[in-house]
UniProtKB/TrEMBL annotation:
Organism: Thalassobellus suaedae
HAMAP family in alphabetical order: CobS
Name the record gives this protein: Adenosylcobinamide-GDP ribazoletransferase
Entry cofactors: Mg(2+)
Keyword Ribonucleoprotein applies: no
Pathway(s) served: Cofactor biosynthesis; adenosylcobalamin biosynthesis; adenosylcobalamin from cob(II)yrinate a,c-diamide: step 7/7
Gene name as annotated: cobS
Lineage of source species: Bacteria, Pseudomonadati, Bacteroidota, Flavobacteriia, Flavobacteriales
Length: 196
């Protein structure tokens, strides 16, 4: 049981800024097994965002409450997903070969494609949530976070890791995912949809 808790906390540590006990680290064997909990991490992050939205909706407008919710989930994940999306935009906007694309994705600087992509994707996220019926917004926030991480798990399962080198921090999480891990991720990932 302690090992399973450590695997879960490894997923929390890898994908969020939520404090974990000092005995939890990024050991590759735990990081690789943590993929089954990616969707559960999504539920946790989404619940934080939903709670912030709900609490502030008593004080502010729907628009401000949504913005505060989005800011909170971005902070809770340490901009992990936004950084990856911006890197992808820069790489596919400015790279013409596989090598150049991978080089740009590894670059920590943010380019015009990345900035444009971030502005647009956050605008789409805000607009989509704004168009959601008010009583469904909290559940939609939670479901969005859990389902997106489930989809990421299925992509990791069905596609090979693109980088051949072993120097990537994320590579252990993208290796040797089993079907049973995907099924566990699916249970957590799709569970919030049952609440609709």
């Amino acid at each position: 049981m302690k090992k399973e808790i450590q695997i879960f906390l490894t997923a929390i540590m890898f994908f969020t800024r939520i404090p974990c006990p000092k005995w939890v680290d990024h050991r590759p064997e735990f990081l690789q097994k943590s993929a089954k909990y990616f969707s559960l991490v999504g539920i946790i992050v989404g619940s934080i965002g939903a709670l912030i939205y709900y609490a502030f909706s008593f004080i502010f407008s729907t628009e401000i409450s949504l913005l505060l919710s989005i800011v909170t989930t971005i902070y809770a994940t340490g901009t992990f997903h936004e950084d990856g999306f911006a890197d992808m935009c820069d790489a596919f906007g400015g790279g013409w070969t596989k090598e150049k694309i991978l080089l740009i994705m590894k670059d920590s600087r943010l380019g015009t494609y990345g900035v444009s992509g971030l502005i647009l994707i956050l605008a789409v996220k805000f607009s989509a949530l704004r168009e959601t019926p008010i009583h469904l917004i909290p559940l939609t926030i939670i479901a969005g976070h859990s389902v997106s991480r489930f989809i990421a798990t299925t992509l990791i399962y069905t596609h090979p890791y693109v980088r051949d080198t072993d120097d990537s921090k994320a590579k252990p999480a993208a290796k040797n995912i089993t079907l049973s891990m995907v099924i566990v991720s699916a249970l957590f990932g799709l569970a919030p949809l049952l609440s609709f």
